[in-house]
Design a protein that fits this description.
Structural class of chain C: mainly alpha
Number of domains of chain C: 2
Strand order of the largest sheet of chain C: 1-2
Number of domains of chain A: 2
Order of helices and strands of chain C: HEHEHHHHH
Distance between the termini of chain C: 50 Å
CATH architecture of the largest domain in chain A: Up-down Bundle
Order of helices and strands of chain A: HHHHHHHHHHHHHHHHHHHH
Largest sheet of chain A: none
Helix content of chain A: 55-70%
Radius of gyration of chain C: 23 Å
Number of strands of chain A: 0
Largest sheet of chain C: 2 strands, antiparallel
Strand content of chain C: under 5%
Bound molecules: copper (II) ion
Shape of chain A: globular
Distance between the termini of chain A: 15 Å
Largest interface: A-C, 56 and 46 residues
CATH architecture of the largest domain in chain C: Up-down Bundle
CATH topology of the largest domain in chain A: Cytochrome C Oxidase, Chain A
Shape of chain C: elongated
Oligomer: heterotrimer
Strand content of chain A: under 5%
Structural class of chain A: mainly alpha
CATH class of the largest domain in chain A: Mainly Alpha
Number of strands of chain C: 2
Radius of gyration of chain A: 25 Å
């Protein structure tokens, strides 16, 4: 960067939802490689799928509201609960986390973009197309209907003919590509793109938890990829992986699925933990309590998460040895998780707490996740699990951890980071309506399920007879779901409205201490005009409220490193410039990742035509779009980035 | 991880033909022994499988450390690979035990 | 940020070095992460093969077998022509042929490191009195092509193997052995094929503009890492699937 004449700032009215000087219009979004825009796209898309999954859940609750209800058919009910689970896991919570990975990781570590900006765009488009591919069939009554876990042999052709499961198998393969590509990108970004002085043990906890999640993704997804390939081959090419008559083992799918499935639950919860770990210190006006332990327990949770998968399978009779080992490993995970809970509580202890909406969501995460965690510890014991498995008790458990944990944490994250992303605050008043109806509604929905489950109400039944003592619990659950619906409407209204009419937010919307708050809201396309060098965990508090970080270690990186990165001391940036006037090379916008994603998805989706008895169409679509995919890939890789 | 590793900026000296040819030679010799053993009565021995596994582990290690330069490159790469390989091998053994394809004590 | 995604065939190397936290190249970190992930992919495949080993109800089987050893005696005899319960049939896995293809793949790894060394040493003048071998060692084109050809030869061996299995009555649909064997080795073969395409692309770039400089060394390096990984996977498969019964 040549230091010639000082660049002139762009003067614009504050509170725009784009950084001034940026291109707008649909083409700019299709060709964007900016991590912030891609993050925003993830956010909008995942929230749309959230509404879809919410409607599915609401129909499920209406159907179960009273005994012998006939609102939807049994077949439609199967599609609804399968798509609710699949959508929430793969199309809502993971991508909402991905929205924050995209938006926050480069800002939190002081980088100007991710390591591979175009790969990042590719991940998003694959996710979007894969999501559409999975979601549309429900409108034609051919949605996946085998549960989000897709147990084979139930999902083989013999028991699940028709296209339903085909959409699920292929859809998950597509979404796997998206998650894997993003994971390699973020691993590289976090390892290699940190500002000088941003050592690993100075990274914000959100970045740390995201880092752990990326490793879980790259190591867990291959197992389900292979399990899905087997199922795909069984369904389309007549292999016998899940063919019991040919000697196949009915547990093969279950094991491979849960080798992926258990790390997956940490993929869903750790980013929310990370967000809570940003929100709680900010609104308690204290550095996070036990930062190191927080990091190590996150790593520990991730690592142990690979050794506990069979606790989902106690009921299949693996034998006493296997049951014991997996039960003990599962109990062990309770320790690092409990450590995190206590650290959050200790962070708030003695703090100067501000009860903003974001803070309320973060605190409710701590409380609700603890409830879900405790019921989880209950069924980590095989004898207890045998009573609870496949009942509503389990449904209650995982909704406390995934709704009470992940969704509440992510909602807190949205209220917290909205001012950074859109330059304006969300309304606290509507936010409070949202929070309380979610909080009360979710407890009203899911707490009674513990009782229904203990009374033996099985999961996945589309209706039930009177006189089993389940009626009032189900009615409460449905009323709670209604309340959550009200909360969702408040949220959506608030989210959409505040973009134009919210109160204008400054740089540092909440008085937080990490790097992302030191630059304008919304951040300019180049993020940091001058890369700061970081001397402690809360660099912004260092310059604005030094008394808060007095006890933390401060060390500056050596002069050579600072010069190497053209870094300057920690500072606030409040003006917008153009990247050009600052001499910062920006990656070119390009449509190639979009086309690469589109053709790859078409190539994978073309297989469906085989089951429509259109063999040659399938061949044509697959080979044609396969060639187009390789072509776009070559075009992409041979054109310059910036 | 050692941050801002100035040394990593310098080019890491990779081995040359002189070492590479020996690595290749040993890979071939070990493979030849593996195949030869397959045709000897040793095949029926209880030690056959462990011996073969050991030999292929040596081949695996030689390729990874010399041809993939793990011995010379930044330790970060070693960690990335060891993590994936370690979890993969543990998962594989666990699965084999769970399905009764392996049993303690043969 | 930038050298990160820098393109393969792009002419002007912007050699202005971007600062990175570790001083390492982004793409090299990513490829190692990918390799770590691939370990898990092949572990799942190999586990499934080993779990299903000996569980097939009908032949052909991988190793020495007779119709008697099969679980469903009656059915087997019909399936494989000329199978009488007393006969001991030869194993379907052809060790001599597979040993040859293994040999070829191992040697391709040697060629690959020499290709990388040749690109790394571009610009160093040959020693005085350099013979034909020194000149050969300095030719990245030669070694890239040699690696690709050996990879293609391996694929040729695999096609031969697959075809002869089908002739002996083993397809991907026949039994659990067929399903898991063809899927496992097929996945490996697909990886080799991608590698061959990658090598040919590098060769084409080398012909077009010559591979040299730091960025090009990296291009060849990440391809080499991928190639060697595919090779070590084969080392594991050869022992676990072919040699150990
Ligand atoms: Cu689990």
């Amino acid at each position: 960067m040549a230091t010639t004449a000082a660049p002139a700032p762009i003067n614009t009215p504050a509170g725009t939802s784009y950084a001034p000087g940026e291109a707008t219009g649909i083409w700019s979004w299709l060709t964007t490689v900016d991590h912030k825009r891609i993050g925003t796209l993830y956010l909008w898309t995942a929230l749309t799928f959230f509404i879809v999954a919410g409607i599915e859940a609401f129909i499920i609750r209406l159907q179960l509201m009273k005994p012998n209800n006939q609102l939807v058919s049994a077949e439609m009910y199967n599609q609804l609960f399968t798509m609710h689970g699949t959508t929430m896991v793969f199309l809502v919570i993971m991508p909402l986390s991905a929205a924050f990975f995209n938006y926050l990781i480069p800002l939190q570590i002081g980088a100007r973009d991710v390591a591979f900006p175009r790969l990042n765009a590719f991940s998003y488009w694959v996710y979007l197309f894969g999501g559409i591919f999975m979601t549309v069939p429900i409108f034609f009554n051919v949605a996946p209907n085998g549960g989000w876990f897709g147990y084979a042999p139930l999902t083989t052709m013999q028991f699940s003919g028709g296209l339903n499961i085909d959409f699920w198998v292929i859809g998950l393969q597509i979404l796997g590509v998206s998650s894997l590509a993003a994971a390699f990108n973020f691993i590289t970004t976090i390892i290699n793109m940190r500002a000088p002085g941003m050592s690993l043990m100075r990274m914000p906890i959100f970045t740390w938890m995201s880092f752990v999640v990326q490793f879980l993704l790259i190591l867990a997804f291959p197992a389900i990829t292979i399990a899905l390939f087997f199922l795909q081959f069984d369904r389309f090419f007549g292999t016998q992986f899940y063919e019991i008559a040919a000697g196949a083992d009915p547990l093969l799918w279950q094991h491979l699925f849960w080798v992926f499935g258990h790390p997956e639950v940490y993929i869903l919860i750790l980013p929310a933990f990370g967000l809570a770990s940003e929100i709680l210190p900010t609104f308690s006006k204290k550095p996070l309590f036990g930062y190191n332990v927080m990091v190590y327990s996150g790593i520990m949770i991730g690592f142990l998460g690979f050794g506990v998968w069979a606790h989902h399978m106690f009921a299949v009779g693996m034998g006493a040895t296997a049951d014991t080992i997996f039960a003990m490993a599962t109990l062990l995970i309770g320790i690092p998780t409990g450590v995190k809970i206590f650290n959050w509580v200790a962070t708030m202890w003695g703090g100067n707490i501000r009860f903003t909406v974001a803070m309320k969501f973060a605190i409710s995460l701590v409380a609700l996740f603890t409830i879900g965690g405790i019921s989880g510890v209950m069924h980590s014991s095989p004898p207890t699990d045998l009573q609870q498995t496949d009942t509503y008790f389990i449904v209650a458990h995982f909704h406390y951890v995934l709704f009470g944990g992940s969704i509440m944490g992510i909602m807190g994250g949205i209220y917290f980071y909205y001012p950074k992303i859109f330059g304006r605050y969300m309304s606290e008043k509507l936010g409070n309506w949202h929070f309380w109806s979610f909080f009360v509604g979710m407890n009203m929905t899911f707490f009674p399920m513990h009782y229904a489950g203990m009374l033996g109400m099985p999961r996945r039944i589309y209706t039930y007879d009177i006189g089993q003592g389940w009626e009032q619990f189900n009615l409460w659950s449905t009323v709670g779901a209604l309340l959550q619906g009200v909360g969702l409407i408040c949220f959506v209204y608030n989210f959409v409205k505040s973009r134009k009419r919210g109160e204008v937010a400054p740089n540092d919307a909440w008085g937080a201490g990490t790097l992302e708050w030191s630059i304008p809201s919304p951040p300019p396309d180049y993020n940091f005009a001058k890369i700061p060098y970081v001397t402690s965990r809360y660099p912004l508090w260092d310059i604005k409220q030094p008394e808060m970080t007095a006890e933390l270690t401060h060390t500056a990186p050596d002069a050579g490193v600072i010069a190497d990165a053209h870094a300057v001391p920690m500072h606030e940036e409040t003006q917008y410039y153009t990247a050009k006037s600052l001499g910062i090379p920006m990656p070119f916008p390009t449509i190639k990742p979009f086309f690469a994603a589109l053709f790859m998805v078409l190539m994978m989706a073309g297989l469906v035509f085989i089951h429509l008895d259109l063999f040659w169409v399938a061949i044509f679509v697959m080979i044609g779009s396969g060639a187009a995919f390789v072509g776009s890939l070559y075009g992409w890789l041979t054109s310059p980035l910036e | 991880m050692s941050d801002h590793n100035a040394a990593a900026h310098d080019h890491v000296e990779h081995p040359t033909w002189k070492q590479y040819k020996w690595v290749g030679f040993w890979l071939l010799v070990i493979t030849a022994i593996e195949v030869w053993v397959y045709y000897t009565p040793f095949k029926e021995s209880k030690l056959f499988a462990p011996t073969l596994l050991l030999m292929s582990a040596v081949k695996f290690g030689v390729v990874v450390f010399y041809y993939m330069h793990l011995k010379y490159d930044h330790p970060l790469f070693k960690r990335l690979f060891a993590m994936g390989l370690g979890i993969a091998i543990c998962t594989m053994f666990a699965l084999l035990f769970l399905f009764g394809a392996l049993k303690i004590g043969g | 940020m930038a050298t990160a995604d820098t393109p393969a065939g792009h002419e002007g190397h912007h050699e202005h070095v971007h600062y990175t936290s570790t001083g390492l190249e982004n793409r090299k970190i990513a490829i190692w992460a990918l390799i770590g992930s691939e370990c898990m992919l092949f572990a799942s495949l190999i586990s499934t093969y080993l779990i299903y080993k000996g569980r097939s109800k009908v032949g052909p089987f991988p190793h020495e077998w007779s119709c008697k050893t099969s679980n469903v005696v009656g059915k087997t005899a019909e399936l494989v022509a000329g199978c009488a319960p007393a006969d001991v049939l030869k194993p379907i896995l052809d060790i001599p042929v597979t040993s040859q293809s293994t040999f070829v793949l191992l040697m391709s790894s040697l060629a690959m490191v020499l290709a990388l060394a040749a690109v790394e040493n571009k610009g160093h003048p040959l020693p005085a009195g350099a013979g034909w071998w020194d000149r050969c060692l300095a030719s990245s084109k030669f070694w890239l092509m040699a690696t690709a050809v050996m990879g293609a030869t391996f694929i040729g061996y695999q096609s031969y193997e697959f075809t002869s299995f089908v002739h002996e009555g083993l397809t991907i649909k026949t039994n659990l052995f067929g399903s898991s064997f063809f899927t496992l080795t097929g996945f490996h073969g697909a990886h080799v094929s991608v590698g061959v395409l990658w090598l040919l692309t590098l060769f084409a770039i080398d012909v077009k503009r010559g591979l040299k400089g730091k960025n090009d060394v990296l291009l060849v390096d990440i391809c080499a890492l991928y190639w060697h990984f595919v090779d070590v996977v084969w080392i594991a498969i050869f022992t676990l699937i072919y040699l150990i019964q």
